[in-house]
Amino acid sequence: MKKNLTPIFLFFLCFISFFVRIVPYITHNDYFSADSTHDGLLVKYIQNTGRINWEDQYGVYPVLHSILFLFYSLSGIDFEAMMFYLIPLLFSFSLLFWYLFLKNHLGNELAFLSCLFIALFGPNIWWTSQTVRESFGLLMFPIVVYFFDKSTSKEFVPFFIISSVLMVCSHHWSSLMTLLFLSGMLSSAKYRDRWHITAYFLFLTILLSYWLFVSQYIITLLNAVLYSLRDKIIVLLISVILLIIFVKLTYRYLESFIRNERLANALNVILLLLLLFFVFNTPLFYRLTAFKYPPQEYLSIFFLAFFAIFGYRETVLKHYNTFKITAVIIFLLSLLIIFPLLTGRYSDSGYDPIRTLEFIVYPLSVFSAVGLYCYCTMIKPHYKFIFSSLIVFIVFFGFWSYPPILLNGQVYPNSPIFDIRSYVKWVDTKALDLLINWSKSNNFGIKAPNFLVWNKIVSSGYLGNNGVVLSSNDINLYKNIDKITSFSLGSPDPSIIINESLYLDTVYSNNGAEIYRSEISESSPYYSSYYG
Amino acid sequence: MLLAQIFWSLFSLFRIISASLFIFFIPGYLLLRLVNYKPNNTLELYLLPFLSSIGISFGAVLFCDQVIKNITPGNVIFVVSMLILSIALVKLVMGKEK
Asked: Which of A74, A90, A93 is the closest to B73 by Cβ?
């Protein structure tokens, strides 16, 4: 990459990263997840009361809400437009920190390619387009890593502290992933100086203090997870320690194995076959994920892993230190997938291990960037054409991370590309608005089992115990119940309310939603789930 | 009517740009200038104020929540301005001592 073209390439990177994240809003101009509606409500809470809602589980991570509130009140921009476009834009800027971080270690081209892989990686696109706390966590992630890397120089220490505080106050899961990432960096001798160790413990102190004194429910959650793993935790810990010792002892042989071209090629073939097995054996993924995603969801994962297989050997040969650190980080982050897979308890804790992927892409994109770069240099005479085609493919696969309803308004039921998130993450607002207007004019307080509908009712101010809303989404979810592995993850089991509604009177109905008079007894499971 | 619409659009654009600069650039930039920070490259010149400004804005919101007990845009602007002014004052006094 010519040096004077770098700003143009970086602008292109930010633009394409921003564009793929706002596509659902261009086509729909509406929220598409329950969490983002909840975060929107917390912004409105600050606006209405002038205080942060520390009582709310989401409110104890107030960075996103504070920034959105400030921007909304100062700019006078439409609330929804601000919610939809601001975070994708900020995320695109934060990629530049990752670029600066990698540029110091790998050079301009590889840093750019790595950022491109992150910008167009499906799970990352999906989470950073939603304006939730996690998207702010993802935004802060490369910033913390960049300043951790730079923490040897005194002038960067205040920035590291600011970014750590912002990260810890942004999102618990992102903070945990950052901690694992920094632990991985610390495993390398390059980072084991007193400055980096101090910076690491500083981050740990900020994180634990926040969890202990402000967000205690995380400690309760961790306790619950550890309790659910109580019978296997010792076996798991011993297995991990043994695995680390095994890798440490055999590392030298493994390294010479990779350096040998023939053996490495054989290993690549095995890895590629394994990758194909994983991607085409979707039932295996079903054990990991909260929803049974359609095959197109895995295209972007496949593409990233494919180039990573191409690139890991080259990384060993040319950027040995980077390989060591990256491999350790990938290993540490992958543990969060392996643990629940082995125990099968993830659904109890309400934690989706597939969400690790949006963070794993950061270290993995280094291998993929090296792989793509090698591939392009191998076919040098035509590399411009092939490189452009590959970029088009990556963009295309990135788009498929959205359920089809957010792209062209179609659900495609009974087809292989049917995505259950079309019913979980999106609701027909027109029908719901009509219903809410009816409840307003009749002074009829309503509630809903669907978290997304619930939040819409809360924002309308007509939450009450007079009636229960059953939307067409609940019925569609009920019909496709086999596509949901875990109901604890933002998609409550609709069968309870549907069964209850058989015995209730319909008060209002339109094409997309119905209100039933709520006469549910306190012994009903529906009552305990939603009425507290 | 058209003139009014154009004026209103320009005013809205001005508000958006000012809000973006206030939340994402100016406080951090001023702070870095006050501590005589010299960036290593052009990207850092924009990215470091970006991060610092988010930090300052969030800090100001927290201050308004915990101390003033009322978060309003006016209060936040006041807190941020006071912070920058007090740092500038400290710098002025320390400069004279030298």
From this structure: A74
How do residues A203-257 score in pLDDT, each as one tens digit? 999 999 999 999 888 888 777 777 777 777 787 788 778 887 887 787 777 777 7
pLDDT confidence of A531, banded at 50, 70, 90? very low
DSSP, collapsed to helix, strand or coil, labels residue A39 as helix
pLDDT in the model for residue A511 = 79
Among the residues of A214-345, which ranges form H helices? 216-228, 233-259, 261-280, 282-286, 299-318, 320-343
Give the Cα separation of A380 and A251 in Å (integer): 34
Q: For testing the chain A interface, which of B54, B57, B67 should be mutated: the one with the most A CBs within 10 Å?
A: B54
> Distance from B21 to chain A by nearest Cα, in Å?
10
Chain B residue numbers with beta carbons less than 8 Å from the beta carbon of A77 are 12, 15-16, 19
Put simply, whether B13 touches A (Cβ < 8 Å) is no
- Please name every residue paired with A469 in a beta bridge, in sequence order, or none if there are none: A515
Instruction: Please indicate whether, in this complex, the C-beta atoms of B69 and A69 are within 8 angstroms of each other.
Output: no
pLDDT at A18 over 90: yes
> Do the chains contact at A159 and B12, CB–CB below 8 Å?
no
> Would you tell me how many other CB atoms lie within 10 Å of the CB of residue B70?
12
